[in-house]
Write a structure and sequence with these properties.
The protein is mainly α and about 300 residues long. The protein has eleven helices and no strands.
Length: about 300
C-alpha cells in the first residue's frame, strides 16, 4: 500500500457511521488471535484460523482488520495493556522503573511469540501511549526529554534482551528435551578440557567463580536490573533539576581555544532567583535546590 493511501488502524473507525451494527469487534478478533498465538505461535494466528475461532467467515474479518500488519499491531498493543502501572509515577523513581521492568518481562514470558514481532517503529496504540506517558513522567522531573528517551531505551533493551534469552532457552529445552542441568552435564568433559588447557583464563574465572550463571531466571533478572538502575541513579538522584538542552555537536578546536580561559557564567535559579551552586562533577544545575526543582515541575504540569 502506498504511503499516500495508508491509514493507521487507530484512525479507522471500528464501526461505520451508518448501517447495521457489526457482529464482531476488534477486541474479540484480537483476543482470539492472542489465544491462538499463545498456544501455537504467531504464524498460526491467520485470518482463517481466527474466523473459525469466533465463528465468522474469513473474508468478513477484513472489514474489521484490513491487513495482517494491522492485526499484529492490535495484538502487540493489547499485550502492553497488561503492564500494570496504576499509581505511577509514585515519587520513587527506582521502584517505578523496577515495576515497569518486571511487568514488561512478565508480559514477554506469558506471550513468548512477541519475540517474533519484528517492529522497530512504534505504532502508538492506546496502551503503548499510556506506558509512554507514565514511564516518561517518572523520568521527566530529573532529566531532559532526550536523556529520558535514552535511559528508557537502555532499561527496555535490558528487559527485552533478558526475556528473549529466557524465552529462547525454554524453547531449546522443549526442542532438545534437555534441562539446563542436563545440558551442563553433557558439556562438562569439554569444559574441563578447556579449563585444563590454561588458554582461557577469563572463561576459567567465569566457570569457577561466577555466581550469576547459577542463579534461577528470576534472581538473574533482578541482579541485572539492579545493575542497570544503579547506572541510571547518578542522573536521577542528583539534587539539581533538569539541565538545559545539551548541544551534542562536536566543538571545533578553535572554539575550544577561544573559550578555554573564559569564566563560567553564574547561574540563577529561575524559581527563587538565588545563585545556583556548582556541583562536584561539573554537571550544570538549573535549580538551586530540590524544592525549587519540584516547584517548577508542579508548575509545568499545571
Amino acid at each position: 500500500m502506498a504511503d499516500a493511501e495508508y491509514v493507521s488502524i487507530w484512525m479507522r473507525p471500528e464501526r461505520p457511521a451508518r448501517g447495521p451494527r457489526p457482529a464482531y469487534s476488534r477486541a474479540q478478533i484480537t483476543e482470539a488471535a492472542i489465544r491462538i498465538a499463545d498456544a501455537e505461535g504467531l504464524e498460526a494466528a491467520t485470518m482463517r484460523r481466527i474466523a473459525a475461532e469466533i465463528g465468522a467467515g474469513a473474508m468478513s474479518l477484513y472489514r474489521y482488520v484490513p491487513s495482517r500488519d494491522d492485526l499484529v499491531e492490535l495484538m502487540a498493543d493489547r499485550l502492553q495493556g497488561e503492564i500494570d502501572l496504576e499509581g505511577v509515577p509514585s515519587g520513587d523513581w527506582r521502584a517505578d522503573l523496577a515495576r515497569y521492568a518486571g511487568g514488561l518481562r512478565a508480559m514477554w514470558l506469558r506471550h513468548p511469540w512477541i519475540a517474533t514481532v519484528h517492529r522497530s517503529l512504534p505504532g502508538f496504540g492506546p496502551n503503548q501511549l499510556r506506558l509512554i506517558e507514565r514511564v516518561m513522567a517518572v523520568l521527566d522531573p530529573y532529566i531532559s526529554i532526550d536523556e529520558s528517551l535514552s535511559l528508557l531505551s537502555i532499561l527496555t533493551g535490558y528487559v527485552e534482551s533478558a526475556a528473549r534469552e529466557e524465552v529462547g532457552q525454554a524453547a531449546e529445552v522443549r526442542r532438545s528435551g534437555l534441562t539446563a542441568a542436563e545440558w551442563m552435564a553433557r558439556y562438562s568433559p569439554y569444559v574441563r578440557r578447556l579449563l585444563e588447557s590454561g588458554e582461557y583464563p577469563m572463561f576459567t574465572k567465569i566457570v569457577l567463580e561466577a555466581r550469576q550463571p547459577h542463579l534461577d531466571h528470576e534472581d538473574r533478572f533482578r541482579y541485572g536490573l539492579e545493575r542497570v538502575l544503579d547506572c541510571m541513579a547518578p542522573a536521577l538522584s542528583a539534587a539539581d533539576g533538569p539541565p538545559p538542552s545539551r548541544d551534542e555537536t562536536f566543538v571545533t578546536a578553535s572554539e575550544c581555544d577561544e573559550t578555554a580561559d573564559a569564566p563560567a557564567p553564574s547561574a540563577v535559579c529561575p524559581v527563587c532567583g538565588d545563585a545556583v551552586p556548582g556541583t562536584a562533577t561539573g554537571r550544570p544545575r538549573t535549580y538551586c535546590s530540590r524544592a525549587c526543582r519540584q516547584r517548577a515541575y508542579r508548575t509545568r504540569k499545571g
